[in-house]
Amino acid sequence: MIAGSPGPFETAGKTLDMAKEVYKNFFLVTNREQISKALMQNWGFDVSHTEGYCCPSFLFVPSKKGLYKNFVLSKFKEKSKPVVGFILCGWNFQEQPFSKWPRRDNEFDVFIKSVEYITEDLGANVYLMSHSNGFPIPPKPFELQYGRDYVVVKRLKELLDERKVNNVFLQDRTFDAWETKEVIGGLDMLVSGRIHGAVAGLSQCVPTVIIDYGMPPETHKQKGMTKEVDMEDMIANPRNLDMLLKKIDFCWNNRKKIRNHLEKSVPAAQERSRMQFNRMKEVLS
Q: 85 and 127 in one domain?
């Protein structure tokens, strides 16, 4: 079982008992962060074959097509302003389920106010993007399409337009994974409600605020994966607007210091990620 963050689990019941039985029979479990092993042990799992490393996404290599300059910057009238990326998904809302659609306009309030703060108080451009893509169900031929996050950010853009919030652009085309990481790497700062969007930023030393889940179940992967680069303090609860704005403000005003910190911590995280593949070779040889 490679590069997971097992859990969360219900505290009792047949499902938990079955999970424990299955789990102890893995030859090797490599977790993509350090926290989940302790949690598994607290839940009563046999963790004798569990080892903590770092998510392979820290090793993912971006494309080199000049997309940030030729696509992102070209969309803003005031191109000299810094650009803050903003990624949002269904998990960041407070009402379940994460796939609920449509949502009431007032469910977007915390995100509207966050974007307003970035554009009006911090004076930056905001680049709204979806971090999930989709494709037709086989046997239809593969074609990259907008994923479930796109309708969320599209509605956010519409609500911002109604409030006449300027200097905001919604990504209006799909990028593949390599292109998406390249675009994120060009940003001056990122606010991400998707953990792998955040990792795409952190792994390229982009100062990043992580929007946590706004609904149960409480997840540990955000804390665990950001802890790999000592950035867990940049996680913000979307139920607390004041906290989110303070995290954004801190990240913005300390973005040079944060970038310097990431330049030192990311290589170590990437090395921990490589180690799990060497460990797999040992087990399988």
A: yes
CATH of residue 146's domain is 3.40.50.2000
Per DSSP, the residues of 53-66 read: ---GGGGPPPP-S-
What residues make up the domain containing 236? 60-265
Q: How far apart are CA 202 and CA 267, in angstroms?
A: 11
Across the strands, what pairs with 30? 2, 51
DSSP E strands in 168-242: the ranges are 168-170, 189-192, 208-211, 235-236
The number of helix segments (H) and strand segments (E) in the chain equals 10, 11
Tokens matching residue 108:
């977007």
Q: What is the DSSP letter of 31?
A: E
Would you state the torsion angle of the CA atoms of residues 251, 256, 257, 261, taken in this order, to the nearest 10 degrees? Answer: 100
Q: Quick one: 13 and 125 in the same domain?
A: no
> What confidence tens digit (pLDDT) does each residue in 235-266 have?
999 999 999 999 999 999 999 999 999 999 99
Q: What is the pLDDT of residues 119-139, one digit of tens each?
A: 999 999 999 999 999 999 999
Give helix 150-162 / helix 109-116 axis angle, nearest 10°. 60
- Helical segments of the chain, H only: 14-23, 35-42, 67, 109-116, 150-162, 177-185, 195-202, 221-227, 241-253, 255-284
Task: State the Cα–Cα distance between residues 202 and 190, nearest whole angstrom.
Answer: 9
pTM more than 0.90: yes
User: pLDDT tens digit string along 47-75?
Assistant: 999 999 999 999 999 999 999 999 999 99
Residue 272: both structure tokens together:
């921990």
CA-closest candidate to residue 198, choices 82, 206, 282, 139: 206
Written as six digits, the tokens of 55 are: 């998510």
Residues 112 and 124 in one domain: yes
CB distance 206 to 198 below 8 Å: no
